[in-house]
Amino acid sequence: MLKKFKGIHKGKRGFLIACGPSLSKTDISKLDNEITFVVSRGYKREKLNITYLFIGDMYIYQQFYDEISEVNCDALFVSKGIYFSGLPVNKNTYYFTGHGEKKFHTDITKSLYGGGTSTFLAMQFAYYMGIQELYAIGLDHSWNFSNSVKIGHGSGGDIMRNINQDNNHFSKDFYGKSVTWFYPKMDKMAEAYKMASEAYTKDNRILSNASLETKLPNDIISRTDYNTIYKV
Questions:
Q1: CATH number for the domain that contains residue 84
Q2: Is the dihedral of CA 165, 212, 196, 52 positive or negative?
Q3: 169 part of a folded domain
Q4: 141 and 190 in contact (C-beta within 8 Å)?
């Protein structure tokens, strides 16, 4: 089923919507007519145009399934591992296979490498769809763990639970009180982003970080001023 997406946006521009605090300060009205690749609970950003939504975290899917199933988007992409959790299938949901070889995959119909973040998955999907220029916003690459505690360990890493409001995302209730989530492996993410940047560059495409604020080094993904993208 994923083959239907091959090259459907060939040569076009797209925006990858990550969920860092800077997304709350970003003028998303500019994205009303753009192709957007939204990860996790990015759908909570009010008035955000969502073309595609990506869920790679089992805990997020299980805890917020009712919300996710109501998101208005062209397609929802979910890891097959989450599908086996027993939740029902939605008509616009497509399942991909994870745990693939550690590299940037240009064919999403094969097993994909997650890189520790749905953002990297979205980069691979955008490439497969033929996106020529992909700009990330809300990719702040910064975490504060003062409002959370470790409660266990799973196949995806340490399992965390919030004890107060979220201070790592654009919304205070993104990971609200008592919400469970996987501990982010920042080095693993950065390594994956570097692979994505190299893959886009090798194919004469653009992958750039247009976030208003970020701690992701420029030598991982190049920087672009979000506002200059729209200048004629």
A1: 3.40.50
A2: positive
A3: no
A4: yes
- In the chain, the number of structural domains is 1
Backbone angles phi, psi at 45, to 5 degrees: -70, 115
60, 41 contact by CB (below 8 A): yes
Q: Is residue 148 situated within a structural domain?
A: no
Q: How many CA atoms lie within 13 A of 54 on its CB side?
A: 24
Look up residue 183 and give its two tokens.
């501990």
**What are 44-57's pLDDT values in tens digits?**
999 999 999 999 88
Tokens standing for residue 134: 């992909």
**Longest Cα pair distance anywhere in the chain, in angstroms?**
51
pTM of the model: 0.93
Helices in the chain by DSSP H: which ranges? 58-63, 65-68, 80-83, 118-128, 186-202
